[in-house]
Amino acid sequence: MLNNAPRDNRPPDPVTLAQAFRYWLKLGLISFGGPAGQIAIMHHDLVEKKRWISEQRFLHALNYCMLLPGPEAQQLATYIGWMMHRTWGGIIAGVLFVLPSLFVLIALSWIYIAFGDVPLVAGLFYGIKPAVTAIVLQAAHRIGTRALQNSLLWSIATCAFLAIFALNVPFPVIVAAAALIGYAGGRIAPEKFKAGGGHGKSNKSFGAALIDDYTPTPEHARFRWSGLVKVVLAGSLLWLLPMALLTAEFGWDHTLTQMGWFFTKAALLTFGGAYAVLPYVYQGAVGHYGWLTTAQMMDGLALGETTPGPLIMVVAFVGFVGGYVKAVFGPDMLFMAGALAATLVTWFTFLPSFIFILAGGPLVEATHGNLQFTAPLTAITAAVVGVILNLVLFFGYHVLWPKGFAGAFDSASALIALAAAGALFRYQRGVIEVIAACAAAGLVYKTLVA
Questions:
Q1: Which residues pair with 53 in a beta bridge?
Q2: Which one of 308-322, 328-342, 390-404 scores highest in mean pLDDT?
Q3: Are 377 and 146 contacting, i.e. CB atoms less than 8 angstroms apart?
Q4: Do the domain assignments include residue 230?
Q5: Residue 191 burial (CB count, 10 A)
Q6: Which of 81, 213, 237, 271 could link 380 by a cystine bridge, Cβ 3.0 to 4.6 Å?
Q7: Running DSSP on this structure, what letter comes out for residue 190?
Q8: Are 309 and 97 in contact (CB under 8 A)?
């Protein structure tokens, strides 16, 4: 029977798991632009165009994901997939958000490490490094503009900067201290900690959705202690089994085992996005373990910026280079070592995100908007601004004085960095455009001076 009601007043036809699979795969292939761009794509597709979920429910889910450590865009995809098609829907959405990026980064990492000394590749990355410095500076400015809404939050950011810059305090300690300050501050001066990074409510409507404002919570999404225990146990086993196998096969001090442990900790510290955890990754991967150099870390960040998927996928580059350089399977299996290390690192980095969504999703209504939970996040985000500023200075030093202060100042890199900053701040150009232009400038410069 035909229904003559306007289309917008009727929800769309139910979506099969196969249809959802095709969409999540497409999203994984086109999700450029960092979390803001990825969330915008999902909003356009799922709220405005397909109407799989309403504006209110979309923002409600996003607010929860913003409270968690880990990539919020990937977690949001997992959440929506879980709401629509239960556990397997969430797993499919979350995995397909990451998998294309993993394959691309393994290929690019191999090209980089195997052919990085080729003049063409070297010239491109000469221009990319100053661009990365400007991009990280823009990230500090963007997060700071949103997060530092009063003098107390500015003080937290300043203390975090001094702690990591002058005292070399480990990033986890800074995060823990900020969380404690936020927890106490939320009780003592709650008005100072209401400036979190969440997204406000909206009254927009794009028509009836499959998961609408007043759609009852699906049965599988209702909180049950038994469901929570099952998810936590399954997630713990999925972490414990590979760690146990790595330890039994190679030993606790082996590169692959230490990568699993290190990136598990990193996954639990990514409050504020990938830029926030980069100092911690640098401290461990470059400073402590020596899996790669500072220059390689900057190049990896550039590759992460230009590939689809979450920016935190830069950890796959770190894993590949570390496994390749350390030759964990011997000199005849370098690519296999790098590819396996990149895959392991990705597994340990993203596993907590799935556990958070599948275990915590049913608790969203109980925690959303509660200052007890949001105040620590507000303080952590403020501290993150100071930490990222330290990263800007660190990258800038290595770009402008590649041989240390005793060496010559690299004026060409300085000009490229200034041009990149102008393009980002003054003309609001996209990250990929800026990286491409700077890579071309670096190639031209290296060709002329060769």
A1: 211
A2: 328-342
A3: no
A4: yes
A5: 11
A6: 271
A7: G
A8: yes
Rounded CA-CA distance 261/345 in Å is 9
Question: What are the pLDDT digits (tens) for 156-192?
Answer: 999 999 998 898 887 778 888 988 998 899 889 888 8
CA 201 → CA 54, 130, 156, 236, 296, distances in Å?
A: 12, 38, 28, 34, 41
What is the Cα–Cα distance from 271 to 186, expressed in whole angstroms? Answer: 18
> Looking at residues 27-42, what average pLDDT do you find?
75
CA gyration radius, the chain: 22
119 has a pLDDT exceeding 90: no
Task: Answer yes or no: are the C-beta atoms of 388 and 143 closer than 8 Å.
Answer: yes
Looking at the structure of the chain, the number of domains it has is 1
The DSSP result for 210-225, as a single string, is SB-TTPPPPGGGS--H
Average pLDDT over residues 209-236: 87
Domain interval for residue 282: 106-197+223-449
* Model confidence pLDDT, tens digit, residues 335-352: 999 999 999 999 999 999
* E-state strands within 320-433: none
Compute the average pLDDT of residues 25-42: 77
Residue 317: closest CA among 355, 291, 279: 291
The structure tokens listed for 103 are 């394959």
| Cα–Cα dist 274/296, whole Å | 17
Residue 36 resides in a domain: no
- CA pair distance 386, 374, nearest whole angstrom: 19
Residue 391 near residue 275, CB atoms below 8 Å: yes
Integer Cα distance of 108 and 320 in angstroms? 10
Residue 241 within any structural domain of the chain: yes
Under a CB-based contact definition with an 8 Å cutoff, are residues 95 and 229 in contact?
no
286 within a domain of the structure (yes/no): yes
User: Residue type for 89, please?
Assistant: G
Length of the chain equals 450
- Residue scoring higher pLDDT (67 or 161): 161
Can you list the alpha helix ranges (DSSP code H) found in 189-272? Answer: 225-250, 255-267
pLDDT for residue 196 is more than 60: no
Using alpha carbons, select from 226, 235, 250 the residue that is nearest to residue 340: 250
Say what the pTM is: 0.74
Better pLDDT: 137 or 339 = 339
What distance in Å separates the CA atoms of residue 241 and residue 98, rounded to the nearest whole number? 22
